[in-house]
Backbone:
């Protein structure tokens, strides 16, 4: 039964509508200056120090490419790279640009309701800030911030605020501004009373730290109780989870620190709001803070957009040590260089910077150690000299588990990764008297069964590094849209060599089976890997340059190449059969004759008019 085309999903339909409604030339032109050069638009690449325009925009294909960076893609990919956002956020920005209303997003709210929530949060931030600036009730808060060494300029730059002790201070102002209590409750600013008789303010008697998303929009608040007041209350509280805010995927100060991170390629993560602010005040701008939770996988993925290295600065007490152990295995599984810096016992980054200056903090960061070394040092330090075998083996196992998690998805080159493993295994071997081979075997056992995502690295997915056949297949696929039927029926993923090409062919098969178009733009939207997107754009550009003739003629050449490859495979199979099978003279002669014919076909040589019969000389004559 023939496959029935599947209707496009709502998300696919929205993506297509947005893509058709925006022009990549206009979008790119809003970021960099473009000028026409032939059919293309060119400009200076925003991602490297470009003095000669190497960035091109193809208006016909709606793609972009930088030949120096070797990156490219469609309009969604461009916005994702420029704004350091995920696809959904790029889609929202482009939809807003095109005036298209998106359906309900991951947070469960339509875009206009999210915009309404953002307006409420921006309004509340202004109320808290005005209170800290001028209210007599905020005097103790101003004293506290001054005592922490924060200047008026820093307080203003980060728009700190204060929430008075009153149970309904913000609610009363909301009513005067025409806002309903339900709006404040949905934004996490008000809490419904247990008896359902009304609401009360969530933040009371606290210094307020606005939390902003990477685009600088206020989405939540952190509140710090003043020292000596409300001893029965938590020292810090944050906004609850809302459609705008998830503390496991946001970081304090990211909106104002992401450019500095992109420049330094490092992200310093501290534990407190004032720690982050003290660092910024000292001129260290690539610092962010967690939001009352341990640094997790989603934080690491977020920071990977901007930095190549994460330096986690932890307190030197037992609590800091526990937090390090909590996050180590999570961070070691991420393909990013992670380091751990330990504060002196009893101190925090804010105090260190204010008392000893920026240089002391930078020196501490420079001494941050590899997390595997950290884990190993902690294990050895905590192991008593007279510890029994069980305790020793448990210590070894904990280090091997961390090593297995780190190596499974490491961003290091294979040789560097192996060296790192050998260094740790060597230290374990010397300390516990165990064979390196035994330790490595156990490490590999621990790693077995763990899912390891296949990553197409940028340096492996370039047209110049593709085998000739893989490149020819991709050039025909993206360069001759009418060839999809030929590709799908004649080319299987196993017929190409590289993982990148196989993934593209698999995607083409899947789109075709679902009855969806299989053009360059469709593949770019379907494939999320930026390296694959860059590869397809590069293949399309190079293919157009090398084969500018009739598309039908090109398909004809490709069909002929397919025929020759098929004949070549048959010839190889026949040759193997002659070498490996015992045949009688007649069977061997027939196989030889077929092999000659297959070789001619593979080489494109026509059959002779009167071929010589090998069979005629294969039988010995009597006498």
Residues:
């Amino acid at each position: 039964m023939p496959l029935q085309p599947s209707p496009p999903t709502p998300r696919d339909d929205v993506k297509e509508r947005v893509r058709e409604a925006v022009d990549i030339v206009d979008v790119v032109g809003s970021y960099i200056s473009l000028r026409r050069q032939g059919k293309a638009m060119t400009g200076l690449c925003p991602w490297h120090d470009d003095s000669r325009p190497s960035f091109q925009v193809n208006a016909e294909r709606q793609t972009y490419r930088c030949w120096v960076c070797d990156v490219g893609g469609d309009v969604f990919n461009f916005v994702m790279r420029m704004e350091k956002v995920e696809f959904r956020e790029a889609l929202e920005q482009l939809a807003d640009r095109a005036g298209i209303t998106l359906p309900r997003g991951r947070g469960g709210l339509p875009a206009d309701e999210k915009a309404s929530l953002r307006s409420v949060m921006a309004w509340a931030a202004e109320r808290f800030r005005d209170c800290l600036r001028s209210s007599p009730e905020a005097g103790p808060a101003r004293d506290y911030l001054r005592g922490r060494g924060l200047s008026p300029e820093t307080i203003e730059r980060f728009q700190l605020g204060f929430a008075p002790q009153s149970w309904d201070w913000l609610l009363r102002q909301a009513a005067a501004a025409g806002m309903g209590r339900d709006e404040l409750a949905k934004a996490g600013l008000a809490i419904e009373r247990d008896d359902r008789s009304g609401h009360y303010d969530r933040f009371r008697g606290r210094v307020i730290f606005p939390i902003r998303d990477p685009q600088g929009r206020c989405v939540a608040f952190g509140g710090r109780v003043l020292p000596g007041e409300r001893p029965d209350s938590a020292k810090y509280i944050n906004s609850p989870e809302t459609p705008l805010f998830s503390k496991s995927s946001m970081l304090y100060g990211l909106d104002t620190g992401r450019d500095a991170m992109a420049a330094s390629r490092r992200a310093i993560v501290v534990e407190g709001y004032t720690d982050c602010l003290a660092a910024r005040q000292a001129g260290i701008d690539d610092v962010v803070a967690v939001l009352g939770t341990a640094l997790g996988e989603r934080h690491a993925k977020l920071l990977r957009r901007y930095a190549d290295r994460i330096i986690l600065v932890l307190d030197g007490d037992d609590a800091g040590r526990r937090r390090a152990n909590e996050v180590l295995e999570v961070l070691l599984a991420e393909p990013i260089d992670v380091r751990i810096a330990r504060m002196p016992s009893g101190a925090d980054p804010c105090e260190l910077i204010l008392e000893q200056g920026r240089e002391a903090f930078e020196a501490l960061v420079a001494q941050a150690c590899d997390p595997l070394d950290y884990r190993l040092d902690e294990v050895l330090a905590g192991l008593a000299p007279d510890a029994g075998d069980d305790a020793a083996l448990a210590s070894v196992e904990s280090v091997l588990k961390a090593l297995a998690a780190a190596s499974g998805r490491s961003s290091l080159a294979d040789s560097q990764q192996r060296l790192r493993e050998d260094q740790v295994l060597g230290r374990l071997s010397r300390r516990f008297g165990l064979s390196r081979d035994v330790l490595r075997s156990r490490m590999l056992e621990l790693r077995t069964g763990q899912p390891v995502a296949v990553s197409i690295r940028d340096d492996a997915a370039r047209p110049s590094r593709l085998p000739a056949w893989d490149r020819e297949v991709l050039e025909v696929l993206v360069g001759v849209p009418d060839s999809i039927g030929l590709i799908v029926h004649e080319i299987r993923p196993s017929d190409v060599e590289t993982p990148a090409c196989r993934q593209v062919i698999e995607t083409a098969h899947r789109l075709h089976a679902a009855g969806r178009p299989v053009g360059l733009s469709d593949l770019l939207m379907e494939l999320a890997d930026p390296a694959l997107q860059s590869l397809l754009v590069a293949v399309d550009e190079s293919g157009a340059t090398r084969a500018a003739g009739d598309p039908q003629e090109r398909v004809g050449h490709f069909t002929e190449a397919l025929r020759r490859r098929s004949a070549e495979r048959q010839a190889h199979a026949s040759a193997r059969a002659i070498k490996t099978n015992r045949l009688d003279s007649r069977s061997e002669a027939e196989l030889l004759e077929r092999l000659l014919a297959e070789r001619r076909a593979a080489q494109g040589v026509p059959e002779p008019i009167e071929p010589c019969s090998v069979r005629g000389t294969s039988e010995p004559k009597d006498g």
